[in-house]
Amino acid sequence: GITEDLLSRAASVALALIDDDGPTSRAHLTSAWAHLGTERAGVAYHLIYALSVSGVLVQGPPHPARAGEQLFVRYESLVGAAPSESAEEALTAWATQYGRSHGPVTERDFARWTGLPITQCRRALRAAAEGRALEEVENAGVTYWRDPEVPALVEAHREEAERHLLLPAFDELILGYADRTATLAAAHETDVVPGRNGVFRPVAVRGGRAYATWTRNAAGEVRLTPFP
Question: What is the rounded CA–CA span in Å between residue 46 and residue 43?
């Protein structure tokens, strides 16, 4: 298995390699770790994962010769120093960002988006509202959180927001909520996510409501498939 000692030594080797040679590849890291006994299947992969989620490494520039592969760099060189805020403060900041970009949202929306327990999500959204970063509103007995500027933004950009839009697959307007009925009727969810397999089709929206899926052929022609 991967011990704390192995992880520490792997981090030292990886950072020294990056400092000497610059952004480095997965294969280069694997080779540099060979003397640590990482030749066993999967060990190097798990080391890269562990060092990435712990804020040591991060994927950076693309590999110059391998399409689709990114090179690894020091975390702080790309992301910056790790924040010193507490876990609760970090979750409140996350709730603020989600609420401002997706709001109005419910606690269920945030819980689904983060994968965190709903009690933590509720507490974070309320904290954001107490700090006036978000606004808490009630509608039909449901509590929502949103950017306080949403009403003014809607009025200023109503025509733009209600125009005909072709959204890409996995667009956050559809994907980013537990309850999508404000945009997508429940009866048509399987038209967008066939078999509920997690693969979202591109969607056409008009007046803020999804009404069709769409495709584009090799000639660049768009074909709409209206919902039945």
Answer: 5
Q: With a cut of 70, say whether residue 41 has pLDDT above it.
A: no
Residue-wise pLDDT for 16-25, tens only, equals 999 999 999 9
C-alpha 166/C-alpha 213 separation (Å) is 9
| Cβ contacts of 188 within 8 Å, gap of 6 or more | 210, 227
Residues in contact with 70: Cβ distance below 8 Å, sequence separation at least 6, in sequence order? 59, 60, 61, 62, 63
Of 53, 71, 73, 52, nearest in space to 62 by CA: 71
Report pLDDT for 171.
94
> Last residue of a domain, which of 60, 78, 96?
78
pLDDT single digits (tens) 44-86: 889 999 999 998 999 999 998 888 899 999 999 988 776 778 8
Give which of 86, 132, 93 is closest to 110, Cα–Cα. 93
3-state secondary structure of 3: coil
Confidence of residue 42 (pLDDT cuts 50, 70, 90): confident
> What's the pLDDT score for residue 68?
84
What separation, in Å, do the N-terminal and C-terminal C-alpha atoms of the chain show? 53
Pick the closest to residue 96 from 128, 135, 138 (CA basis). 128
Q: Which domain holds residue 142?
A: 87-152
Any idea what the CATH number is for the domain that residue 141 is in? 1.10.10.10
